[in-house]
Amino acid sequence: MNADSIKTIQKVLLAVNIFYMGRACKACCKYDAETAAVFAQIRDGFVARIGTAPGGAEIFVRSNDGEFEVCSPGRAPRPDLDIRFKNSDVARKFFSGQKSLAACFSQGLTMTGGDTSQLMTLSRFFDLVANYIMTKNFLRRNGRPLLKRNANVHKLRFVTLFGRL
Fold it and tell me: CATH number for the domain including 150?
């Protein structure tokens, strides 16, 4: 495989990782009380764009009546907070749960713009989602299996494992 093929595969994996991270965040807000409580602290109508350089892979997240929403880039309102990772490798590590948003921010691996007042709350939210994905907490809840309800969490975990190649 040449270098261009590897970069293309990495771009596709990052886009898939972002897609399932959005789905997993929604599942965590619905089924995990702690994650939902942290996300409820974000003000209503707050929109954040998280991704790589302009034109790269990105996700728009919005708080709508305390619920997590993923907006498609074409329909998303103007973001209140813009978080850009320096490169796709850092973004992949963040979206796969290997690196926290706070760590990326403190190491200078992100560029932020707009209203950063919600940055730490958003960082805590993504840390809880990553913990939920990477541990076995999502396998059982109150003695009942969550495998069917959290299929997106499992898909993200699968993609994450292959994204580390």
Answer: 3.30.1050.10
